[in-house]
Amino acid sequence: MMFPKKLSAKLEIRKQNNALRKLSLPNDLIDFASNDYVGFSKNKVIFEETHQYLISNDILQNGATGSRLLSGNHKVYQEAEDFIANFHQSERALIFNSGYDANVGFFSSVPQKGDLILYDELSHASIRDGIQLSNAKAYKFQHNDFEDLEKLIERFQTELVEVYIVTESVFSMDGDTPNLEELAQLSEKHNCHLVIDEAHSLGVFGDRGEGLVQMLGLQNKVFARIMTFGKGLGCHGAAILGSQELKDYLVNFARSLIYTTGLSPHSVATNLIAYQHLESEKQTINKLRENIIHFNQEKNLLGLKPMFVRSKSAIQSAIIPGNQNVKSIANQIQEKGFDIKAILSPTVPEGQERLRFCIHSFNSKEEISEVLSLLSTFVF
Known about the structure:
By secondary structure, this protein is of the alpha/beta class. It has helices at residues 5-16, 44-56, 76-87, 99-109, 125-132, 146-156, 180-189, 212-215, 244-253, 255-258, 265-280, 282-301, 323-335, 365-379; strands at 30-31, 92-96, 116-120, 137-141, 163-168, 193-197, 224-228, 238-242, 315-319, 338-339, 341-343, 354-358. Helix 2 crosses helix 11 and helix 4 (99-109) runs parallel beside helix 5. The chain is globular, with a radius of gyration of 21 Å.
């Protein structure tokens, strides 16, 4: 059967731009690429405790068997959602199959026709895809620029318009953070609904890794938080935090929750046990924080600071323009034993291609110093 010509042409363009994506297999390189910030994905204790939890509760079931509204809302969900809500000082939590599903479900269903969504221009693809499915009007504001945001609010807001302000506490490609305290004040001033995606904040910020919103004590000023489990928690799934009314609404109208098979009992139990470990593994979170500080100190000592986006998170991005250029440097570092990934256009804008370093609690200071020394060798 012939493959469609238009699709072949699009693939060919990607090849010509040296931007064709391919799936890679796991490797034994030193990890500076994964989102497993505190190492929970390979934590044997979490694995074993999850198994014991399922056995002790007589949950010998591989799959959810259906959507949560039909047969898939197994009893682990309730315990996990209650624990997560309490952990995050939220009235309620609602688990989704992934961060992508949570964002698509929220933004496609909550803002209504006639409402307004104002989102940071660097918002994640899942947020933007959800907005595209919404009947509300949407406008982007310049990255972390709240003067630009306020101009949009004043331009479009009326008494009949509900305004949703959307941002991330840590941006996935830059690793930077907005001034959430200023944003919360602005949102309150204009009676807006503040929505914050904390995908790359969970496990990284706060004494227990509870995220940047809670670390700043802003949880009561945020309409909804999206917590993703596949990064700092090392698991799979996500939860939307908010009021009982918001949870009720999403259960009734979020299509990415309603029309899909739920997570398996094992997945939900793993999330629950991992959350319990966040409460007890402060030493691991502190080690991550120390490694982030060491990374920033080393890049300054090596004269690399100007090429990096300013970040105090676990994501550190060195801007190296050109797909071929950044791929070449990534390959050279990989040949020296370090797993570091090049982020190419069109994932990021042309000219903003980068090496994205992910810092972990399990990286040693020696590994951090060595990988930055290699970068210095290859770029200077």
